[in-house]
Amino acid sequence: MLTVAVLISGTGSNLRALLDAAAEPDYPARIVVVGADREAEGFRHAEDFGIPTFLVPWRDFDTRDEWGAELATQLDVWRPDLVVLSGLMRLLPPAVVEARAPQIINTHPAYLPEFPGAHAVRDALAAGVVQTGASVIVVDDGVDTGPVVAQERVPVLPGDDEHTLHDRIKPVERRLLIDVVRRIATGELDLAAAAASASTPS
Ligand code: GAR
Fold first, then answer.
1. ipTM reported for the complex, 2 dp
2. For residue 144, which atom of ligand 1 is closest to its CA?
3. Active site at which residues (predicted)?
């Protein structure tokens, strides 16, 4: 059974979907802890399932490295096989990424490498594209630059605003995330191989 830590910052609707999936008897992964950088609304989903939570408040630390060191300490307590960034709106410091890579994945509401960063849905609308998407990537030291392990297109419809478009993307993200975690757990998807092939020049 693959053990998973999920890190969030917000409502945690994608976390909820993963918790629901992991509650199914035939799902090969279980969530052992949920962490956040702020008092995230999404903690309530973990509480619904009796899953422990930890908070490492971003505002309590002077530097990203110090915050990351405490986050790493908290993660180490639970010894998860995989860390899922599910709406964590902070960049992990390189030391945290290096210690756990490639066993950290991130969901992103765009078809990477299009629209990386914290405002992917807004940026897609501002660019006037007719389609955007959802991606799951292996986390590296960059901003949404890691190897893509799953992605799917999502249409932008006339009259969309950030809210309606994000609401259309999130169900796709959830489906991709649940499937990626399942494939990692069964060995169908090897993150080390995905990371290695991405860094090998063709
Ligand atoms: C998700 O769409 C996730 O991809 C995005 O935040 C949302 C969290 O929603 N993350 C990023 O934009 C990271 N760059 P949720 O809290 O309802 O699951």
1. 0.97
2. 14
3. 108
